[in-house]
Amino acid sequence: MAGVDPDTNVRFDQVNDEILRTLGPPPRSFWVIIGFLLIGVMLWPIPWGYQIATGMGSAGYRPSVMWILYIVNFVYWIAIGHSGTFISAILYLFRARFRTPISRATEAMTIFSVFIAAMFPFVHLGRVWIFYWILPYPNHRTIWPDFQSPLIFDLLAVSTYFTVSLVFWYSGLVPDIAAIRDRVRGLKRKIYGYFSLGWSGTDRQWHHYSMSILLMAGLATPLVISVHSVVSWDFALAIIPGYHSTIFPPYFVAGAIHQGIAMVLVLLVPLRKIFRVKNIITDRTLDLLAQTDLLFALVISYTYLTEHFMAEYSGNIFERQQFMFRMVGWYSPEYWIMTILNAIVPLVFFIRRCRYSPFWLMTVGVAVLIGMYLERFIIIIGSMSQDFLPYQWGFYWPGWLESCITFGSFCLFFLLFALFAKFLPSISIAEVKEALKPMRGKKEPTL
Amino acid sequence: MTAEEYGVRGESPDQRRLLAIYSYVDDVVGVIKTLRRKKIRIDGVFSPTRSREMQDALGKGWSNVAFFTLLGGLTGGVGLISLAVYAHLSFHLITWGKPIIPPVPWVIVCFEGTILFSVLFSFVAWVFLGRLPAPHLPAGYDEIFSGHKFGIMVPYSDGERQEIYRILADGQADEIRDVSASDPRKAVLVAENSRAGS
Predict the structure, then answer these.
(1) Whole-number pLDDT of residue A263
(2) Are B135 and A211 an interchain contact pair (Cβ–Cβ within 8 Å)?
(3) What's phi and psi for A93, nearest 5 deg?
(4) CATH code of the domain containing A404
(5) pLDDT band for position A10 (50/70/90)?
């Protein structure tokens, strides 16, 4: 049975202790890391303030590249969130039990990454203080947002995705927060008690809660498909060569899950070592994650080939030159590195030993994260830098300002995740207990 | 846990109940079935995790959360489409030949509204139907119920106590406590005596 490792022995009555042990007082090194991450986060607002004061030119905007690293980051962080919902919702509906110990952490990952992604359109705005013009509300200009625009689709899709992910995550947390409430005292008890809503685990509560979680999972499932499809339409509904393609929605969704699972590996491999929860997040869990990643690596490889084939087969000279430009043009080193990291490196997961090796899991995870970043760079910036007419071609390379903001976003993500792992259960207590069934025959249930 | 922390939620103050504590789901399910067969009312069951068998034994049907979720979906879908129609009809700038009421792109708008409001309604529904947020924990609640034990709370009148006690004990209860909603302190004291006795 998936998720059950016969070498481990977590009893039903040990689950709380095993998981809540991770919330104990952190070592000093934890606060040192938090301090460094906080310093890193400050690299976001300071350059952004400089950009607002001096104008968008300071960030390297130049015709024809008017969507720069910020849009790359937006797409990248949205994609990171996808595997969270994929694991917590889709695999839940498919009753894939290996998801149980990792669903909470991936849901948290989703929320933090979508939050960060949602910040980047603001950074991208020249006059950020009038961002509210995109919202549909009666105004003295009598101008409304165009509901046919993919940018409005994006606004609706991302805000819906964030809200749904947050509600789904919090709903799952309530019984676990109640478990923490019952084991702490003083101010902590009040805080956790407040967020547990007074949960007492009665049959009435579980009855309505279970139905709601099932429905939310069902509703979140199409979101996984739709959100990145909508993000892909930001590009696919434009006529720029390299953007205008019907393959984009499935291509983006598969890439997002590929990248998201890579981030899950990068987060969970050290997490289970630091928190000593190898008996809950088992080797078999990581093995199945690696297999899932391998599947999506193959899907991505196929879409890379299909893109090139369709560009050639279409007979459209602009499409042909764009895809030739990717292979031999200004950004060709990034293109080839991307191809190797996304399509070739994950193939090591065909070897069973690599799927059980923390070194290889981390290596492939980091490789795919870099590769997928380069993929967005190639698609967004590469396509813009050489579109139709040579007179408007332009080269863009990230400067210090965009690089600092990008670095700050990574620091913010890891900061939020570290704080989450320390103050909330990063493994779902109630779901792990549920997975320990059968609790029958007076045998000690084990995971 | 102190007696004050238990709190009492609006049950009848004179209501006396037995709380049986179990370690295994199948024991709980067996006792629930016996109690229901004998038409004895069950006040509530505490559980550290959700259990399909337990819900089935209690005869729980379709939760009304589903209805509220559907209502939310309809509200969100229709609401956002209405907003889009209103916005387009209110747009006073003359633009080129796009259709004024374009149904195809609004599928996305409708979809997002449906999902968003379904989930929000679903959340609000399970919270309120579960009688949350609750300022106090119910009488008889023990922190072991968020740990690894299950509890069945059964109300009784004077003549019934012995029979109910026997059913609960026959179901392999780890412990049986007297719980009085009118006096949580007494409930705790009784519980402590019961522990000592066992």
Answers:
(1) 92
(2) no
(3) -65, -30
(4) 1.20.1630.10
(5) low
- The ipTM estimated for the assembled molecules is 0.88
Task: Report the run of H or E that residue B18 belongs to, with start and end.
Answer: strand B16-22
Whether CATH 3.30.70 fits B3-61+135-197: yes
What's the confidence (pLDDT) of residue A405?
Answer: 95
Q: Considering only residues 47 to 76 of chain B, which have any Cβ-Cβ distance to chain A shorter than 8 Å?
A: 47-51, 54-55, 58, 60, 62-66, 69
8 Å CB contact of A203 and B141: no
The verdict on residue A67 lying in a domain is yes
Closest CA to B63 of B108, B10, B130, B16: B130
Asked if B66 and A157 come within 8 Å (Cβ–Cβ), the reply is no
Inside any domain, residue A440: no
Q: Is residue A11 part of a domain?
A: no
How do B16-22 and B44-46 pair as beta strands? Answer: unpaired
Residue the block writes with tokens 């106590």:
B161
A244-296 pLDDT, tens digit per residue, is 888 999 999 999 999 999 999 999 899 888 888 888 888 888 999 999 999 99
First to last CA, chain A: 10
* Total number of domains constituting chain A: 1
Question: Hey, what are A96's tokens?
Answer: 């894939």
pLDDT digits (tens, 9 = 90+) for B65-104: 999 999 999 999 999 999 988 888 887 776 666 677 788 8
Q: How far is the CA of A433 from the CAs of A3, A101, A283, A427, in angstroms?
A: 13, 10, 19, 11
